[in-house]
Specification:
Elements lengths: L30 H9 L9 H5 L5 E3 L6 E3 L8 H5 L10 H4 L4 H6 L6 E7 L11 H11 L6 E7 L7 E6 L2 H6 L10 H11 L8 E5 L1 H12 L3 H4 L9 E7 L7 H12 L6 E7 L2 E6 L4 E5 L24 E4 L8 E5 L2 H10 L3 E5 L4 H17 L14 H8 L15 H6 L1
Parallel strand pairs: 4-6, 6-7, 7-11
Antiparallel strand pairs: 1-2, 3-12, 3-13, 4-5, 8-9, 9-10, 11-12
Bound molecules: flavin-adenine dinucleotide and iron/sulfur cluster (2 copies).
One iron/sulfur cluster binds next to helix 1 and helix 2.
């Protein structure tokens, strides 16, 4: 895949010319504008939705920083802009389109049909908490007429410890992916290749696990008015029949995490088998069987900046949400939100020890804290009743002059933009 310029060049090695110019679109919104407003501005949350949205497959993922980059000609169709939750997608509008009360969306956790505290009936080695996601997906893979595969995450085989997407077609493969990885696997960007490389039926049904921003991308594309007119053949996301959101308040930047582990703990990513939020701190599980306890503050520098603008901690547009908060040790909190979620839960219930959860106060408190943080960080207005799409000019008006303003490219160094965008 193509290499892109580093986002944060070392001091004294800045490839950019000192310019404040960010060229306005010539009537079209191109990938270049998304790149300047989100990726170069260090606001990308690596959801991969822009890659999945591009009808001409012009966007790929750069090896250098695992951010989207142009790999061929951009037609200026604006799909990537409209699908990015840090650019043209007013992500907080998605749940209200599905009928959720704007008040719930702003202060709470969106629409919930049923809530459970649950754990896998059979032990799931390496599960993050209750092993509920693993048990649910394994049961669905075994249920006739349910799913053909599940998109989960695993550690990359290259020893970096970074999350990478994986298509599991058997319960054993799902179990091998148990546990949480705090970097983004970019599954929406890789979905087409994953499906092509797997031995699946012609029109497979998939479950997809992801952070709330990833699920927003799936929902936004499902909602897209361009969908019918632009895609003559099924796109990879058309195969997603069930979405499972992992409750999330922040994901970690690949490089940032590596720096924190090396600087604070003298650890290589390969020395670490897992991380978990424990109370006010983080537990680092070590490959040698030991563990380190770290204050949350040590990891602050590794948090993706764009996550601070996210007010969707509980994945309000998913069919099912699973998180830790709100349940006892060894359990996960499972929220059923849709009919599809209800059908999936009913099928998997025999493999779970699940009890109804009446008190969702801790989940609501987490969501409210997260939404407050987002409203403070965002330069635009947070508006669950606004238009779903935010025009480029409106974004510029809100973000220009702030510390989250678009960052211009140096076209002399990034020649692909002269040719392709
Ligand atoms: C970045 C991040 C931040 C989180 N922060 C919180 C939080 O603040 N509060 C909270 O309550 N819960 C949080 N969670 C969710 C929590 O860590 C557990 O994933 C969740 O409770 C499910 O646990 P489990 O034992 O039921 O899942 P398991 O049975 O262990 O299964 C987890 C599944 O998720 C997949 N997976 C792991 N990492 C990723 C990833 N990065 N992207 C997509 N799929 C993945 C695995 O492959 C596996 O299929 C976070 C998760 C992530 C990824
Ligand atoms: S936040 Fe998501 S949609 Fe936006 S640029 Fe990054 S990967 Fe693409
Ligand atoms: S905090 Fe929000 S934007 Fe960041 S990874 Fe989690 S869901 Fe995505």
């Amino acid at each position: 895949m193509a290499q892109r310029q580093p986002r944060t060049p070392a001091v004294g090695d800045d490839p950019r010319e000192p310019t404040t110019d960010v060229s306005p679109p010539d009537g079209k919104v191109r990938f270049r504008h998304l790149d300047e407003a989100v990726i170069e501005a260090d606001r990308c949350v690596q959801c991969g939705a822009c890659v999945a949205a591009c009808p001409s497959d012009s966007i790929g993922i750069a090896d250098s920083d695992r951010r989207p980059t142009l790999v061929k000609m951009c037609t200026g169709c604006s799909r990537c802009w409209d699908t990015c939750p840090r650019a043209g997608l007013r992500y907080e509008r998605l749940p209200t389109l599905e009928g959720a009360d704007p008040e719930d969306v702003t202060e709470g956790i969106g629409h919930v049909e049923d809530a459970y505290a649950a754990s896998a009936a059979e032990d799931v080695p390496d599960a993050q908490h209750g092993g509920v996601v693993t048990a649910l997906l394994a049961a669905l893979l075994e249920a006739p007429g349910s799913i053909d595969a599940a998109v989960v995450a695993d550690e990359a085989a290259d020893g970096t410890g970074l999350a990478t997407p994986k298509l599991a077609t058997t319960p054993a493969e799902v179990r091998a992916g148990a546990g949480t990885l705090f970097t983004q696997p970019l599954q929406l960007a890789e979905l087409g290749d994953l499906i092509a490389d797997a031995d699946l039926p012609a029109d497979p049904d998939l479950a997809l696990v992801g952070t709330p921003c990833v699920i927003e991308g799936v929902t936004a594309l499902d909602r897209s008015p361009y969908r019918e007119s632009r895609f003559d053949e099924p796109r990879p996301l058309d195969h997603v029949d069930l979405t499972v959101a992992l409750t999330c308040t922040q994901a970690l930047d690949d490089e940032g995490l590596e720096h924190v582990l090396a600087r604070e703990y003298d650890l290589d990513p390969a020395d670490v088998t897992g991380l978990d939020l424990v109370g006010q701190g983080i537990r680092i599980d070590l490959a040698n069987g030991g563990e380190e306890r770290a204050p949350l503050s040590d990891f602050e520098g590794a948090i993706l900046e764009g996550c601070l603008e996210c007010a969707d901690a509980t994945g309000q547009t998913a069919d099912i949400t699973v998180g830790t908060v709100g349940s006892r040790q060894g359990e996960s909190t499972l929220l059923v939100r849709t009919d599809r979620g209800r059908t999936a839960f009913d099928r998997a219930e025999p493999t779970l020890d699940a009890r109804p959860l009446a008190d969702l106060t801790p989940v609501e408190q987490l969501a409210e804290w997260n939404a407050d943080r987002a409203r403070e960080a965002m330069a635009r207005e947070y508006d669950p009743e606004g238009d779903l799409w935010i025009p480029y000019a409106e974004h510029r008006e809100a973000y220009d002059g702030t510390d989250r303003a678009p960052v211009a490219f140096n076209p002399a160094r990034v020649h692909q933009y002269e040719e392709w965008c």
